[in-house]
Structure formats: C-alpha cells, structure tokens
Amino acid sequence: MNSENQEEELEVLRSIYEGDGNFRELSPKSFQYKYGTEGDPHSFVFEISWPESYPETLPVINMDAFYNKHMKTRVKEDIRSKVLKEADVNIGSAMTYTLIEWVKENLEELMVDQPSTMDTSLNLANLDIEEKVEHLCKDNKERRSGLTKAQKRRQWDRMDGKGEKIRGYDWVDVIKHLSQTGGAPSS
Fold this sequence. Notes:
The structure is a single chain. The chain is of the alpha+beta class and 187 residues long. The chain contains seven helices and four strands; from the N terminus they run H-E-E-E-E-H-H-H-H-H-H. It is elongated. The mean pLDDT is 78. Residues 8-110 form the RWD domain.
C-alpha cells in the first residue's frame, strides 16, 4: 500500500512542480526545494526524503546541503524541528507538497534569527564544537604551504615581472657541467 501511495504522490509532485526551477527530484523518494534567490542570506535548500514506511512515518528532513553553509546551525535545526512538528500532524497522508508550501508560507518567521547580511567568513561563535574543530583544522592546513622563506625567495627570483619563469631558467651550462664531472668534450 505504501508503494502505491508513494507513486501517486510522486506523480502529483511532478505535475505540480513541473517547470519550477526551485524544485528538484534527487530520486523517486528524495526531493529538494530552494527558497529565496541566489546570494540572498535568507535563501536555503530544504531536502525531504521518504523512508520505506512513509507516509505512516515521518519523512527525513535534511538541512545540511552545501548551499546552506551560510546559515546558522541553530536556524537550520529550528527549521527542521518545526517542519517535523508540522509533518507529525499530517502522518498517514501524503505531505511533501504540504510541507514545501508550509515552509513557503512561514519563511519569514523561520528565518527571523538568520542575519540579513551574508557573511562569507565563518563566525566561530555560531558553530558547534565539532564544526569549530573542523574549521580550525582546515584553516591551519591552508596556512601551511610547505615552503620555507628561502625556497619561496628562490622561486620568486626565477620569475619575471609577470610571474612567469624566465627563458632558460632550466638550462644547463654544458661546459661547467663537464668540467665538474671530469669529462672533457670530445673533438
């Protein structure tokens, strides 16, 4: 019975959201909907997946899409919990469309704690402990280039003013090379 209900709901979703660029079907049981416009700090991607026993059980709500990296963890969790609360009311019936539309209607309220300016650098105060450790480790790896100052200086000296290697940078002085190795040019 679940499989038939899911197939019917899938067909309905496809017909409703046909041509809607914000709706994306990841698989026959997993969907994404993008709210807001590109670059807007209040835009995010909402993902909903159906477990085997859906609609008798709650769908899986995921807010961890890469697109949502600018959002505060607390805001993502708040959206997820409120959507699951709304889904709980609709247990036993097809609810994907209802949940997508519910988020649209309540978008302003859901994003009230999200800053209205896009901060491209991560604010460590907004991250949980695991995210802080991951961010700091990544930051530390990016800082280390592996070259000493002397190596960087020698590398720079081999470049012309445009940042390109000068002609002949890897040429070998044959006469000097042969005199160092003890070999003499044959005539």
